[in-house]
Amino acid sequence: MNQLPVNMDHEDFQDILILGPECRERFLITEEIPELRDHDMHMGGVSWLRGRYHVGRKDPDIHTLLFTLGGGGQVLLPGRSEVITPGSVTLLPAHQPFLFELGAAEQEWRMAWLLLDDSEVWSALRGQPADVFQHDQVWAISPMMDALYHQIKTPRRRRMVGLISEILTDVLLRESGYSRLEMTIRQLYAQLEDQLHHPWSQARLAERVHCSVPHLNRVCKKLYGQGPMSRLADLRLQRAGELLASSNWQVSQIAQRVGYADAFNFSHWFRGRTGMSPTQFRRYSRSRSLQEKEQVSLK
């Protein structure tokens, strides 16, 4: 029997990965499945484990989820340990230490796993306690990830990644405190940051989350205190400011990047929101950045 220590403090955890010769894993990586990035999934895999298997992280910058189909293991968390059994989800949020391993040397552990970026898409997981809980969707998501491995070279992989994300949302509703629609809308706006150049309308946004325009308005005001198009405008303004401050793109290029085909209209809109033209904002941002660097160098 592998014996995990008990009552470990945060400083006792270490980054460790021990994978014995009897363990087998199939990896789902963004280089082969770029659609994973669309849902802020860092990577995933399907594992058949036996013998030596230990994984520990001291301060992970990603969320880790394990979906156990058979056998099991155990996970050590600060001040406690949990047994991992079939049909369970093991949730290990970012920036919380953990150590997990097989329950016994002779035991097998069949599971799928996902690593999620600590981004706005999965921001509902921030600050959640690590947990092991039973969920029926384990029996759906694990085979789906195994099937995705065999569909890497086919157009079907995009639909399969989307379905995995949808099933994952079902699983995490238990932890997030949001309704399904609220979590879907939060994920949509996180994804829109890379799609600001599209000509979005309320109708198109509502269609993406499968609800009516009035319902979308109500939920957006609950989540953000503003309507869906105002929220989109804030994202466009934020991105435009970042590009003006950090890139050498022309104003017309930045305008197109955030959804304005005409640089004049973009400049008029930008001045109305910030009180400065894009060129003035660029000079101001770079001057302030230079001053901050000089202050740091003087310390």
What does this protein structure show overall?
The chain is of the alpha+beta class and 299 residues long. It folds into two domains: 10-177, Jelly Rolls (Sandwich); 185-293, Homeodomain-like (Arc Repressor Mutant, subunit A). It is 43% helix and 23% strand. The chain has helices at residues 35-38, 138-149, 156-176, 180-192, 202-208, 213-224, 228-246, 251-257, 263-274, 278-298; strands at 16-19, 24-29, 41-50, 53-57, 62-71, 73-77, 80-84, 88-92, 98-102, 108-117, 131-134. The strands form two sheets. A six-stranded antiparallel β-sheet has the order 2-3-10-5-8-11. The chain has a five-stranded antiparallel β-sheet with strand order 1-4-9-6-7, with no helix packed on it. β6 (73-77) and β7 form a beta hairpin. It is globular and about 70 Å long. The mean pLDDT is 88.
Task: Give keywords.
single chain, 299 residues, alpha+beta, 2 domains, 5-stranded antiparallel beta sheet, globular
Count of helical regions: 10
* Mean pLDDT over the full residue set: 88
What kind of assembly state do the chains in view correspond to? single chain
Shape descriptor reads globular
Strand count, sense and barrel status of the largest sheet are: 6 strands, antiparallel
Secondary-structure map with pairings?
Layout (H helix, E strand, L loop, with lengths): L15 E4 L4 E6 L5 H4 L2 E10 L2 E5 L4 E10 L1 E5 L2 E5 L3 E5 L5 E5 L5 E10 L13 E4 L3 H12 L6 H21 L3 H13 L9 H7 L4 H12 L3 H19 L4 H7 L5 H12 L3 H21 L1
Antiparallel strand pairs: 1-4, 2-3, 3-10, 4-9, 5-8, 5-10, 6-7, 6-9, 8-11
Helix pairs in contact: 2-3, 4-6, 7-10, 8-9
